[in-house]
Write a structure and sequence with these properties.
The protein has about 475 residues and is mainly alpha-helical. It has helices at about 40-45, 45-60, 70-80, 95, 105-130, 135-160, 170-175, 185-200, 215-230, 230-245, 280-285, 300-305, 310-315, 350-365, 370-380, 395-410, 415-420, 425-435, 450-455, and strands at about 85, 265-270, 295-300, 315-320, 325-330, 345-350. Helix 5 runs antiparallel to helix 6, helix 9 packs antiparallel against helix 10 and helix 9 (about 215-230) runs parallel beside helix 14.
Length: about 475
């Protein structure tokens, strides 16, 4: 039997010992005998102890658990794209103005936390593989889950930094001086992990909620990966499979329900709780008090992309009046306090994105009417009429798809930043709305400390 657990009830203190480090001087630096730790053998002595390590992988804790709980990915990439502007003169402003340095604290976070979390994943895989104390079904389930999580990390790493060191081991000797693998090799690893996961997972979620991946989580992420690699037929087939599974439904009334715990649109969502506040996006974006200027403000170009009557503008954009001027901020997550109700979860993958992936792939396959039909499903949910794009023009249909991605997926998982780069439109779009962008800004710098510690690492061009 596969053990089930409620991830909300497992204490963050039950993380595996090796992953309890709060910083990462090298990719993997583990003290030989931490005084407050249990051994790996003890951690994986049986399914009950092993499952606590698994829970640690999903824990919503900055630096200990799921890597993207700080909100850094959303804010940094929103600033680099045309979604957000910034009101303070600190490191974050460098993402907006394209003058990043390898010493930037946000860059260090975007590099360091995923590698800490990758170590956790690799430790679980190492601890369960071939473990006679664990049933084959348990090993199969957890292996599939961990490979989905690892694939998510490397998917984001390759899109942020290009080729990065590929760490699949917990051996310090093997990982301390790894060179950068090529972007192609990283993508190959991502696809290999996801393909293996699809062979190991079932369509049932293994615990309450949708924090632990199922079969369709792996397929949905694989659809996104294939979209980014222009594998149109594969992306189409995978997104279509998720949509047709019958497990997910678009949340309609109101749109604020999309990001709630238990959302039927959720393919993968992590319970958001940082102790005193919920999902970190709310803490970053919502003003501290009425009349206070938000730290991050939605740009005029994004606001202009919303059509009159768009429910997404009404439900997912907040506003406040500052010195007589109305300013707007992201408002998909509304609970600044962890005790606020209804409970919100950190959405990772959702059904609306699958419709837009299928639409984009269909357009590239020249199934233009079908592509527009998917676009119109998302538009109808937003209270809009059908797209006016010419159904005989592939260029027009693709433009309609990308427009819908902009207003549907704004300030979620760096989608806009990645879209501009993968479609080759970053320079034209960003150059028109703010100065300073050049081709080398498409990748972030490798943190300087990492290069100093590992002299086989090379820096990205332009830094």
């Amino acid at each position: 039997m596969i053990m089930r657990f409620d991830i909300n009830k497992i204490m963050a203190g039950m993380l595996i010992a090796a992953a309890s480090l709060t910083s990462c001087k090298k990719l993997v630096t583990i003290p030989s005998n931490p005084p407050s730790a249990i051994t790996q053998q003890q951690q994986f002595a049986d399914s009950a102890t092993a499952i606590t390590a698994v829970a640690g992988v999903y824990a919503y804790n900055i630096g200990n658990g799921f890597a993207y709980t700080s909100g850094q990915l959303t804010t940094s990439c929103g600033l680099s794209a045309d979604e957000l502007s910034y009101n303070y003169a600190d490191d974050a402003l460098q993402f907006y103005s394209y003058n990043l340095t390898p010493l930037n604290s946000g860059v260090i976070t975007l590099w360091g936390y995923p590698y800490q979390s990758i170590y956790q994943v690799n430790a679980v895989l190492s601890g369960i593989t071939g473990n006679a104390n664990l049933s084959p079904s348990f090993q199969q389930q957890i292996t599939g889950e961990m490979k989905v999580v690892r694939a998510l990390y490397y998917f984001n790493m390759v899109n942020l930094f290009g080729g990065v060191p590929l760490v699949t081991s917990i051996s310090y000797k093997e990982t301390q001086r790894l060179p950068r693998s090529s972007a192609a090799d990283i993508y190959d690893q991502v696809k290999a992990d996801l393909t293996d996961a699809t062979e190991k997972l079932t369509d049932s979620y293994p615990s309450a909620g949708r924090a632990r991946p199922n079969l369709y989580t792996a397929i949905a992420l694989l659809a996104k990966v294939n979209l980014y690699q222009s594998n149109w037929q594969s992306a189409y087939n995978e997104a279509d499979s998720v949509i047709r599974s019958g497990l997910y439904n678009l949340t309609n009334t109101p749109l604020t329900g999309v990001f709630l715990n238990g959302s039927q649109e959720a393919i993968w969502q992590i319970p958001g709780n940082q102790g005193y506040y919920g999902v970190s996006d709310a803490q970053h974006f919502i003003p501290v008090s009425p009349g206070a200027i938000p730290r991050y403000i939605l740009t005029g170009s994004l606001l202009a992309a919303f059509e009159t009557g768009d429910k997404r503008m009404q439900d997912w954009v907040g506003s406040t009046v500052v010195n007589g001027t109305t300013v707007y901020y992201p408002y998909k997550y509304k609970n600044v306090s962890a005790s606020s109700t209804p409970t919100e979860d950190q959405m990772i993958l959702r059904l609306a994105e699958m419709y837009l992936i299928r639409a984009e792939a269909a357009a590239h396959l020249n199934h233009l009417t079908e592509a527009l039909a998917d676009v119109n499903i998302i538009r109808a949910r937003a209270g809009l009429s059908a797209s006016t794009a010419d159904p005989a023009s592939q260029t027009a249909v693709l433009k309609a798809v990308m427009h819908e991605r902009q207003v549907e997926l704004f300030c979620e998982w760096a989608n806009r930043w990645y879209d501009l780069k993968r479609t080759g439109t970053a320079e034209a779009v960003l150059g028109a709305v703010k100065p300073g962008f050049s081709a080398t800004d498409a990748l972030y710098p490798i943190p300087q400390a990492q290069i100093q510690l590992n002299n086989v690492l090379t820096q990205n061009p332009g830094y």
